[in-house]
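Reopening this ticket.

The earlier resolution said the output was attached, but the attachment link was broken on my side. Pasting everything inline this time so it's all in one place.
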Amino acid sequence: MVSQLFAGNKSELVKLLKLKDKEFLIKYLKDILPLQQWLVKSKMSQSVLTSEDDGLSVVSKIVVSRSEDDSLSFEVNKQCFRQLGVHEPMKENIIDAVAALFQLRDDRIFESHTSVNSNRHGYRPWQRSIYLRASFWEAVIQGIKSFDQLREEYFGQDWNVDNYLHIYIYVNSFDAASVDPWALLQVNLVTHNIVYFDGRINGRAEPVPPGLMTFLTMVRDILQPLLSTLVPAFNLQWQCTSFRETYFELLDNNYDSGVYITAITYFLSVGVPLYFDRNSIARLRMNLAYWILVGNLPI
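Inline output:
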């Protein structure tokens, strides 16, 4: 699509794309404004008059509409919101709010793309992504719901695989002993590959740790039957691999895994080079808190 809009040779196009990547990184890594910082910190702080209800007060409500009569609502109370403070691990409710923000962003792009291009000759629909809340993986692992129930609850009644490109699934890390276990699965519905992202894994390490190989095999075997119902045209075996590059500093603590996979999701969803370090992760906590408060991602 870029080549149709840009007149120039290959080197000029590469230069333009690098400038766009730099522009995004500047926006992504930029500190929020002092007034915004004040708003975030005031919501994270203890109340002046401490009460039992303080932690239960709702600071943000994120609503994702799946159809005209079907929507999901995610409430973030003050107790949950404080998880975004320094050295606090993110619990399931914050992960769900993050997934909802990414879904809202994807839906917004889809709607604007459709409204602008739907009347053009040769228009190709925007291939969307779906971001599943953390309870999906738990439901799949427990096996207490049928594939039809999972499909209706998490993918909606109007699911059509032709309209989607990726499924993002927030899962527990292969390191079962971790107190901060978040990792990410990116399911590509076109190439039929599943890629596992974990802030603790050096993707270039050889050989692949046996525990990780066992985990990846388990993930593939668990998801295969469900994916076969979601993508009925593909009846072969899906492939599950770990992310093979290392464009980010490896996680070395027990409180940042949720923030790491948020950063990974962001970089994957906008299609820019995947790089961040400890400083940008610390900054992302404040940015993420503000985005949850306003109920939107910036891009």
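Reporter confirms the inline version is readable. The domain at 29-44+57-294 is CATH 3.40.395.10 (Adenoviral Proteinase; Chain). Residues 1-7 have pLDDT under 50 and may be disordered.
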